[in-house]
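Each lists sequence, tokenised fold; shown next:
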Amino acid sequence: ECPQSVTLSGSLNNMPLHFFSLSDTKQVALQGVHAMADPGLAPFSLSGTFADGSTFNFEQSVLLLSGDYPTDDPLTVDPSLIDPKVTQPEEDEVNAITAVITPTRYWSGMWQRPAVYDEYSATFGDRRTYNDGAYSSFHAGLDYAGGMGLPISAPAEGKVVFTGLLNVRGNATIIDHGWGVYSAYFHQSEIDVKVGDTVTTGQVIGKVGNTGRVNDAGAFEGAGAHLHFEV
């Protein structure tokens, strides 16, 4: 909060902060902390330039506490879907899509849950191992339990910036909500929106499925169907 015009920049744990106006005197930046970040002191910096050309710089350490994330049971998946030659290009593609910072905030108010059932088969940050490997990865979203074909709804207003079939994530949709905030929906059986669409809160955007890298998806029709939701 500042009573005069100021242009701000900064970083949190080496991630850049992007500031947006809440009012004439207030600005806000939203930035997550990686689930695998080491607990301890993390650097925070803030700098600004006022309308008269004067500047300021501020630095402080911020204490990161452990998330105490649980450890999932070992998962069995297609070995080709944990090969870095397959997973890394997909990760790079998603990161590139969500790296774009839209200055307009499309959403307002509280978000709604995107799934019919408020039940989870996995939570954010869970430490994971695939095919008896090391626990060196984490679950990047929230898995809503639910059967094949159940509707998936947009939790808030936004614009669709990606739809398509990915190797690991299956049928995927990514929505830009502005201010650097994105939501993503993976493993769908059906996608009901297209790139460029503007969606409203509660609008059905697809259906629950088991496409992509899903534990024991081939056991029977619809096995492992769930919505992987992440922000």
Summary: Helices lie at 84-98. The chain has a mean pLDDT of 94. Residues 129 and 135 are 5 Å apart (CA to CA).
